[in-house]
User: Fold this.
Amino acid sequence: MGVAYLFALLTGFVFAGFISSIWPLIGGREVSFTLLLKTGFFAPFEVLVVVFSTPLLLLKLGVRQLLAGRSVVFGWGAIAGAIMCSFFQGVVVISSVYLWV
Assistant:
């Protein structure tokens, strides 16, 4: 059972990394939370990109906070949020794959 949880967690991180790597090729901008502030034709797509990339964005935010020595609680909270978000995203991705197959 623990292997399934780990598989879902890693699947979520891999999917987030895939979306984060593909978007700069398509949209021409790096994935960050500032994509939510932009308006235009690609705004709905950018919201989806940020939602699907949230595990990596939170992980980067938490690691930066810890390395800078700013807020340990906020840094570990962001890392915990990244882990939970990645797990649930992995469950959704795996469920969707099994639903379509």
Notes: The longest helix spans residues 72-100.
